[in-house]
Write a structure and sequence with these properties.
alpha/beta, about 575 residues, 7-stranded mixed beta sheet, 22 helices, 5-stranded parallel beta sheet
């Protein structure tokens, strides 16, 4: 049975030129972070407004909306300030415009009141005041008070106000004034996030009855010379408004790295005016001369990180006290160190953690028994990934009539629900080690998803996961070099912090990227995938022979007993 290996193993996996088993090399520091020096050196102040360069499609839609009779424009934007500043740069200063972050029925529709002489007085709201102008509204108040939306929708549909829309209208006993002749041509721009638009649909499934246009402001912009020019110009204008000296290139590079870190991508920048403004104002507190340097920004990032680190510190304390059991040196069969991201409800940030996955074999039928799923501590995505691993591994033993082993898989010391498929590669290696009896190196940390063909797929939170290993160095739990195995597809997501980059530079941390699971076996087991499969086949052969010998011996004993007894 040992020689009867599937054709995929005997041909593809043994080919020295097959890209699947090409030797991987560690990433360099340059491959693990962002680089903006060249862009900053070639910076030129753009002739156009900076936000029009970042969001040209949105500017085009807004410009045409202003020329059309359409009264409603929906802008999908996570950041109110982004939308406000883009509109300020797009709308002509001569056009009456009001930006309302908060408002109520009175500020929109006006107020009715009785004077001392018994006369009915009507105080105009913004809809009347900005007739022939523009009202830019944050959608939040409309969602808090849905009645406001329905009143606004009615005004847009009929084209004029009704006195009954005003505050106190229901308290007035006399006849209300007729406002039907006062047409309202106010243009309304609603700024909302995608989730808020979904909430509006829940409130009013027929909201689209109002003729409207739609555009989006991406919270992430691609890295290019044009976008860097726009963001640097924006920062220069902001520092001028804040009475701060212009930022030098080193400081700007640190700020741009922060923006890239926010979206975890080397070729994307998060454009959030609120975050940029807060960073500059906070960093300015570290000096007395209104001049922010690179160290001031780094001090701000470190201070904010420490202020949000309580849950992470509890996790680190449990490691130092030995309450969480990790093996970080040597080798072990069926045991591997995985990487996860911890998300806590109400907590402003996520952080990475190292956790132990163990597998033990038993007589069975090829099933990977997922203990987390059986006790309902894991979600559907996790369950799917485990079944993919089981199917992929069992595929190579389709020549065996009955695969004689099963594997009991446990995420050790997990006491809360988890989900996701980023442990798929680690599960495959642990199960392979368990079946083949080849030990796994314990100074290696693994993350990566798999498809049923063995391709290693991208996962989320790669920076938090790698930086969790950096903290093990900080805690003194690791002193010798370690390896991290991650998906090649995630290399573009690496925006690692300075401590991690220093470890990579010194050779203490080596990051290997893999595109297929076969590439991970030599790193973790010191064996090729083909050698692992042969070892498992050999175990199956030995087990089959032992079973045959036992059966033969048992049959001989029964025959002998029947003859002599």
């Amino acid at each position: 049975m040992t020689d009867n290996i599937s054709p995929l193993i005997s041909s593809d996996a043994s080919s020295a030129t097959d890209p699947i088993i090409e030797k991987t090399i560690p990433l360099t520091v340059q491959q693990c972070t962002t680089h903006f020096d060249q862009y900053l050196t070639q910076y030129q102040k753009p002739e156009k407004a900076e936000l029009s360069l970042l969001f040209p499609d949105a500017v085009s839609v807004v410009s045409r909306y202003l020329k059309l009779p359409t009264q409603l424009l929906l802008i999908n934007s996570r950041h109110w300030l982004s939308a406000k500043q883009l509109l300020e740069q797009t709308i002509a200063p001569t056009l009456p415009t009001s930006y309302l972050l908060s408002y109520n029925q009175e500020s929109l529709f006006g107020r009715l009141s009785l004077g001392n002489d018994g006369q009915l007085n009507f105080s105009d709201g913004h809809l009347s005041k900005y007739d022939q102008g523009i009202l830019v509204l944050n959608i939040s108040p409309l969602l808090v008070e849905p009645n406001l939306w329905f009143k606004l929708k009615s005004v847009l549909q009929r084209g004029h106000l009704q006195a009954s829309d005003a505050v106190n209208a229901e308290k007035i006993k006399q006849a209300l004034p007729d406002l039907t002749q006062q047409t309202i041509n106010t243009k309304i721009i609603l700024v909302a996030s995608r989730f808020q638009l979904e909430e509006l649909i829940q409130i009013d499934p027929e909201y689209s009855q109002v003729s409207s246009l739609f555009c989006e402001l991406a919270s992430q912009v691609p890295v290019s010379q044009e976008s860097i020019n726009a963001i640097v110009t924006y920062c220069h204008n902001l520092t001028e408004q804040l009475a701060i000296e212009k930022l030098d290139n080193d400081t700007l590079s640190t700020l741009l790295h922060f923006l890239a870190t926010q979206c975890q991508h080397q070729k994307l920048l998060s454009f959030a005016p609120e975050s940029i403004q807060q960073a500059l104002q906070y960093a300015n507190l570290f000096n007395d001369n209104n001049k922010i340097n690179q160290q001031d920004l780094i001090a701000y990032f470190n201070e904010i990180d420490q202020a949000q680190s309580l849950a992470r510190k509890y996790s680190e304390q449990s490691l130092l006290e030995g309450q969480v059991n990790l093996q970080l040196t040597g080798e072990n069969i069926g045991q591997i160190n995985g990487l996860s991201v911890v998300e806590l409800l109400g907590y402003p940030c996520e952080f990475g953690e190292v956790f132990r996955i163990s597998a033990s074999d038993m007589i069975g039928d090829g099933e990977i028994i997922d203990v987390e799923r059986k006790v309902e501590l894991a979600g559907n995505i996790h369950a799917k990934s485990t079944l993919i691993v089981q199917g992929y591994l069992n595929h190579f033993f389709s020549h065996v009539t009955a695969f004689p082993y099963s594997c009991n898989l446990v995420f050790e010391q997990s006491y809360q629900e988890s989900d996701g498929d980023s442990a798929s590669l680690a599960i495959l290696i642990a199960a392979s080690s368990c079946y083949s009896q080849f030990p796994v190196k314990q100074n290696i940390f693994v993350t990566g998803s798999l498809d049923q063909h063995g391709n290693v797929l991208a996962i989320g939170g790669i920076n938090q996961k790698i930086e969790s290993v950096t903290r093990l160095f900080d805690l003194g739990l690791i002193t010798e070099p370690v390896l991290i195995v991650m998906p090649k597809a995630n290399q573009i997501n690496l925006t690692l912090n300075l401590k991690t980059l220093a470890l990579i530079e010194s050779g203490k941390m080596m990051i290997h990227t893999v595109s297929h699971c076969h590439q991970a076996y030599p790193l973790l087991l010191d064996k090729t995938f083909e050698q692992v499969i042969k070892a498992i086949n050999l175990r199956i052969d030995i087990a089959a022979k032992e079973e045959m010998e036992d059966n033969t011996s048992s049959l001989f004993s029964r025959i002998k007993d029947s003859i002599f007894h």
